Amino acid sequence: MSSTAGKRKEIYKYLAPWPLYSMNWSVRPDKRFRLALGSFIEEYNNKVQIISLDEDTSEFSAKSTFDHPYPTTKIMWIPDSKGVYPDLLATSGDYLRVWRAGEPDTRLECVLNNNKNSDFCAPLTSFDWNEVDPNLVGTSSIDTTCTIWGLETGQPHARVYVAGHVKTQLIAHDKEVYDIAFSRAGGGRDMFASVGADGSVRMFDLRHLEHSTIIYEDPAHTALLRLAWNKQDPNYLATVAMDSCEVIILDVRVPCTPVARLSNHRACVNGIAWAPHSSCHICTAGDDHQALIWDIQQMPRAIEDPILAYTAAEGEVNQIQWGATQPDWIAICYNKACEILRV
């Protein structure tokens, strides 16, 4: 990732008014360089901001900023690359919230709370929006459960509304669940995996929820924080343990034995993102200020070094996202900065 090349910039940088944590690319065809950013302020009042890059002026501008209770643990645009659904994004924190993006006003569509009997809610650690069926969203929670939500969009009185209902809730782990991700296997609708504080990766099928498959268990039972499926080959997924400097690549056909370990980070890894267009490239980011891109073609032979490295001079990289519809671009967050990097 170089700094300049000809007229086209290789790096665009946006400075937010507050520290950033969550971030996600929009995939709508008419919104090429649009991202949603979530603040990380250690108090109740937090923010979400939608920014867009003007390719003519090379400048980012904030299109919408709205209040959010607590920092968002994840933020995600509806996976609607054809632009046929309403322009929605979702956030997780105390609850799952679905928002309608607008300029300048983004509006809350619905708050999805599965605990109807109590004022107490178990915070949501993460969620995933199903790419094959955008009416499905899965959430993971510290109460050991995963919940699959069904979203409905209707059009009463000429205004589209969004509502949601619980399709299924299951106890997924023995301890807190930290991440959930749908797999593209088997049609891409029914398979998902989760990771959690018990140190296991578990795989589920919505059609057969009476049992799950343990794909991997950390030998020391260290909590697993992140999970990401290969975008092109659903046999592979990546996970990272708490306070670990390495990323573990798993092959679901060979459970319990990592097929590769990516271990060049010099501080703990915070984010993993597979290439949207290639089955053998993955990007990792960590507290060592680095974003690294790896080529894993030679698995199961050891992968010694990344093929590209970028150093964010001013801070620990706490988030990384590879543009789903723009595979030439990776976005990272550190401190108050969001940068998009051409690869």
From TrEMBL:
InterPro entries: DCAF7-like, WD40/YVTN_repeat-like_dom_sf, WD40_repeat_CS, WD40_repeat_dom_sf, WD40_rpt. Pathway: Protein modification; protein ubiquitination. Its main location: cytoplasm. It is found in: Cytoplasm; Nucleus. SUPFAM superfamilies: WD40 repeat-like. GO terms for cellular component: cytoplasm; nucleus. Belongs to the WD repeat DCAF7 family. This is DDB1- and CUL4-associated factor 7.
